[in-house]
Every structure is written in structure tokens, then in C-alpha cells.
Amino acid sequence: MSTPDAPAKPALAATPRQNEQMRSKGRSRSVWRLALRDPTTIIGILAAILFAYLIVVPVISMLSDAILVQFGEERRAHAAVGMPTLYYLTRTFSSAVSSDLFWQPLVHTLEVAAGAIILAVAIGGTMAWLLSRTNMLARRWLATALIVPYMLPAWTFALAWTTLFKNRTIGGQLGWLEAIGLSPPDWLAYGQVPITIIMALHYAPFVILLFGNALRRFDSQLEDSARVLGAGTTTVTTQIILPLMLPSLLSAIILIFAKSLGEFGVPYVLGLPVDFDVLSTSLYRNISSRHTGVAAVLAGSIMLIGILSMLVDARLVREARRFVTIGSKGSMNRLSALGPLRLPATGLAFLIFLLSVGLPLATLFLSTIMRQPANFSPDNFTLDFWIGHDLGTVALRTGILLSPDLWNAAWNSLWIVGTASVTSGILGLLVGYVVARTLLWPLAMFLRHVTFLPYLVPGIAFAAAYLSLFAVPRGPIPSLYGTAFILLLALVAEQMPYASRAGISAMMQLGKDPEEAAQIAGAGWLRRMLSIVIPIQKGSLSTGILMPFISGIKGLSLFVILAVPSTDVLTTYSLRLVDYHYTQAANAVVLIIAGLAYFGTLLAQKLTKTNLAEGLGG
Fold first, then answer.
1. How far is residue 339's CA from residue 327's CA, in Å, rounded to a whole number?
2. Sequence-distant (≥ 6) Cβ neighbours of residue 194 within 8 angstroms
3. Cα torsion for 136, 141, 142, 147, to the nearest 10°?
4. Distance from CA of residue 342 to its chain's centroid?
């Protein structure tokens, strides 16, 4: 006997939240399907893989060297090669030699950075105020002239200093002061004092630019209102002006500190002769002596301090948005009359320019045309060090312009830096295109952040990371150390922050309409890029190429670790001449580098219609 079927249970209705989740999943699947059919996504994924390998993997490889036993140190670490160990951390931070390896160089680094910051703020702050808020004479010309020190390699001024103040401590040719009978003490010729002064003059333009632009935006009506209410000069300065200027000033201070961490050339020239080590030169010593594990710990320490300082700077930039003044736009640029102090103020500005640019460059040039230092008699001047023959020196038989080594180094500089700059510029534009066009926001965020990472890592530490990864064969990738290819890869990666930011900024401003019209007409992705995007964004592409080129030409930290004699560039060639005590020849090469960097910067500004000192002149 059959039984009647039980009534079916009614299906439970989905909740609104479940409905929203299902719709969200459906939209996500739809977005992924659309994205995977778009060439932009494929290019973005390939770019993400490339930059992960060029930027993230070297850093991880370097950090792993700090905790894995390295070849040749098995007995010291009491473990086999490749096994985990705390030996290098212990040796660097708490052993009997940790003071020489880390703690003393750290103290020296902090002392130099603090001194450079104090001097740079004093010089740059004063000049920023004079240029931005007063009627000082020649403001427009000085606004550009006073930032020239940052256009030139920092160690240009270190070589000028040693040309003037060098004493018999390290031998070689006499310094100018000693040549006229004055023997500078060691503390003035080498070490902390000259390093601090030179770095302060080199980085003072940061304060002029950042602090000066903030001063220009400050509304003079706030001062007027406070004075009407009876506030004195001290009250106005401490209670109104400084709180509003503090974010920009602190940003300049953090940038100077971060740059000081990775500065190598100045401590190398002026610190090593008297064993005044900073973190960058201690890292260099350990790499040169093949203490890879300790070098990895030092590089990681420099990198960590650099990242923390830049994160603080990013926080300050966000905080600066809270400091907004409201007032009449016309009153913002009202200048203060200096009265009888106008001429002395202008004279002070010209004196700083002469000390930071004129005197160093004049000293370097004069040294290259003198047989004996500081001898200004007519028969002492010569062009032999530029175009002479049979000079009688062991490693340099002709003038520098006739030396094959110079032209080999110049060719290496131009083709290596040029190729890397063009590559980074194109990759930067592609990164910008993917970030602005891709439907996958995680991909866009990854590319945005990974291409900015090298900016947070000082150059000397980034070079150590590349040495760690490519010094030995790894899988299908052979050892690249000693080849030009490792320099190319490292330069491309190091310059990506500038190139990618130029590309992202440009593509964010380019609407989709031109591309969509071309796509409707049947143009493929490559045709749209070549015929529409690149022609429209040629200015940004030029910026993404020229700025890395200028930075690479005068760069030293990366090359001094990764270059070998066969891949010498101008910067490493000049340091080699310094080591040989060939003062005139070394100074001549540095002048060539300074000329390339300066005129390259001017060309970049002209082509891109920008100005580093824009807004400071009047």
C-alpha cells in the first residue's frame, strides 16, 4: 500500500547579505574574465614578475646571507655552508670586534648626519627665507645658483677639499695650504669635520627647496593680524610661522638624514685615510674583504634605518596637509624690505655660492693645470695633465684626454647608464599604463609599491643585495658579477622609483577616449601604444629617461660595489686615480662628471619645461 508523498520543504530564502556576497563573487569573476582578455593585464603580470625578481629577490637574498653560513666560514660558524646561524648577527652587534664593525661607524654616521642637518638647516633656512620672503638682489639667479651643489656629485667637493687641505698623513702630492707653508691638522684635513661641512653644503638645497616653497605659501596676513594684536617678533616666529613651517622643515631633515646614510664618496675620500668609518664605508670594507655575512648584516641595518626614515617622512607629508592657511592669495607673496641689510644679505648669498660651488670647481680646475700645487707663477701652468705625452707616471703615461682608460670608462658610462635609463623609462611608462588602466587593483598596488622600494634602500645596500644574488650561479642564471649586465640590471631597478612615478603621474592624467576611439577603429594594443600613448606622453617618457641618466652618470655607491676594472665607469675610474694619488688626473675626471651632470640637468629641465628652483625666484 503506497503512502502519500511527504510535502516538500520550502527552500530557505537567501538573506540580503548572502545575495550581496553572490553578486560580489559574480562581479569578481566577471572582472577577472575581462582582465585576462586584456593585454594590459598580461603586461602587468609580466612586469610584476620582473620587478619581483629585480627588486624583492635581491633584498631577500642579501638578508638571507646574514643568517646562513657562507663559504669559507664553516669553522668560525661551527656549521656547514648554507645552514642557519646567528654567528654574523652576534659578530656584528655583540662580539669583541662589533665596535669596529658596527657601533663606532653607526655613531660616526649619526654624528655626521646630525652635524650636516644642523648646518644645512642653518644655511638653507636662511637662504630660503631671503629668496622667498625678502627683496634681496638677484633673487631669480641665486634661486638656481644655490641649488647647483645638489646637481653635482658630492665627492666633487671632497676632492676639492683634499686638494686644499691635504697634509702629509697619507702621502702623495702636497695640499695647497701645505705647499705654502701651512700644515692643516688632521681633524681639518680628514674625518668628521670636513665630511660634515661638505655634506651640509651638498644637501642644503633640500632645505632651500622644501622650506622655501612652504614660506612662499605662507600668508603674510597672519603675521599682520598677530602684530595688530600686540604680538612681538619672537611670538610671531615661535607661535605662528614655525608651527606652520615645521612639516616641510622636518621633511627636509628626514631626507638629509636618509641621504647621509647611503653617502659613500665623501667618507671614502676624507674618512678612510684616517680610519674614520661610517656605515657605508664599513660595509665597503667587509665586501672588499669577502666577509659576506657581516656585510649582509650591515647592509640590512642601513636599509632598515633608511626605510624607517622614509616612512617617517611619508607620515610628515600626510601631517602637512593639516597645516593649511586661508587668506588673500595676493598677500602671500608680499616681500619684506631688507633696507640697509639688502646688500649684506645679497653678499652672504653670493659668498655661500662661492664656497659651495665656485671655490671647489675653481680649485679642481686649477689643480689640473698646475705642475706644483699653489704655485701661481706662469711657468708652473701646463696642459700636460689634460693632453700631455710621456708624463713619467707609472699608471698614467699621457694626459687624461689622451688616455684610453678614460674613453673606455666614458663609453661604459654612456652605454651602460644610457641603456639602463632608456629601459627604465620605457618600463616606467608601462608601469604607469598598467596602474592606470588595469581592472585588477591588487596588481596595480603591487607595481606601484614594488617599483618605489629601491628609493627606500640606500644605494650601497642595494648594491650589496645585487652582489649577494648574482655573485654565484643560481639555477639557470649564471654568475653575473664582473659583467656589464649586472650593472644594467641594478641601475634599471635602482632608477625605477623615478621612472615609474613619472609614468604613473602621466598616465593618470591621460583619458581613455583617444585609445577607445582607436580601438573602435580596429587598432590593436601595440598600435595604440606606438601611435597614441607614447606620442602624447613623450614628455613624461623623456623625464623618465633623463632623470635616471643624470643620476646614474654621477652615481658612485652602486658602481663601487659592482664594477670591476673591465667595467669601469667614470666614477669608479676617478676613485681609482684617487687611490693612486694622481690628484690632477682624478680632479680632471671629476670635472668631466660634474659637467655631464650639470648640463644634463639643464637639458632635462629645458626639454621637460621644468625648473628645480621654480617658485623661488622673483
1. 27
2. 158, 161, 165, 188, 270
3. 150
4. 36
Q: Quick one: what percent of the chain has pLDDT higher than 70?
A: 81
Tell me, yes or no, whether 350 and 416 share the same domain.
no
pLDDT at 390: 81
- DSSP one-letter code for 614: T
315 and 416 co-located in one domain: no
Grid coordinates standing for 216?
612662499
Asked which of 310, 339, 357 is the last residue of a domain, the reply is 357
* Together in a domain, 533 and 608: yes
Q: Can you state the percent helix, strand and coil of the chain, rounding each to 5?
A: 75, 0, 25
Largest CA distance in the chain: 133
550 and 420 Cβ atoms separated by less than 8 Å: no
Range of the domain at 423: 396-613
Which residue is listed with cell 646561524? 85
The residue count of the chain comes to: 618
**Coil, strand, or helix at residue 15?**
coil
User: What is the CB-side half-sphere exposure of residue 116 using CA atoms within 13 A?
Assistant: 32
- Residue 475 sits in the same domain as residue 583: yes
Grid cell digits, residue 151: 646637481
Residue 87, phi then psi, degrees to nearest 5? -60, -45
Q: What beta strand segments (E) does 195-271 contain?
A: none
Which among 14-28, 88-102, 240-254, 455-469 has the top mean pLDDT? 88-102
CA end-to-end distance (rounded Å), the chain:
107
List pLDDT tens digits, range 424-446: 988 988 898 888 888 788 888 89
266 and 190 share a domain? yes
Query: What region, left, alpha or beta, does residue 18 occupy, with left being phi > 0 and alpha being psi -120 to 50 degrees?
Result: alpha
Burial 526-558 (b: 16+ CB within 10 A, else e): eebbeebbeebbeebbbbbbbbbbbbbbbbbbb
The answer to whether residue 282 sits within a structural domain is: yes
Residue 438, classed as helix, strand or coil, is coil
Per-residue pLDDT tens digits for 332-347: 456 777 888 889 999 9
> What is the residue-wise DSSP string for 129-165?
HHHHHB--TTHHHHHHHTTHHHHS-HHHHHHHHHHHH
Count of domains in the chain?
2
By the 8 A CB rule, do 533 and 436 touch?
no
Residues 317, 254 share a domain: yes
Q: Tell me, what's the pLDDT at 1?
A: 46
Q: Is residue 29 part of a domain?
A: no
What's the grid cell of residue 274? 684616517
At a CB cut-off of 8 Å and minimum separation 6, what does 257 contact?
113, 117, 309
Question: Do the domain assignments include residue 545?
Answer: yes
- The pLDDT tens digits of the residues spanning 305-340 come to 888 887 777 776 665 555 554 444 444 456 777 888
Q: Are residues 469 and 351 in the same domain?
A: no
Amino acid symbol at 609: K
pTM for this predicted structure: 0.82
For cell 577616449, the residue is: 513
* Residues forming a β-bridge with 448: none
Give domain status of residue 546, yes or no: yes
Q: How far apart are CA 309 and CA 305, in angstroms?
A: 6
Is residue 386 classed exposed, middle or buried when 0-12, 13-18 and 19+ CB atoms within 10 A define those classes? middle
- Same domain, yes or no, for 336 and 437? no
Instruction: For residue 201, give the CATH number of its domain.
Output: 1.10.3720.10
Portion of the chain with pLDDT greater than 90, in percent: 33
Domain termination residue (choose one: 310, 333, 357): 357
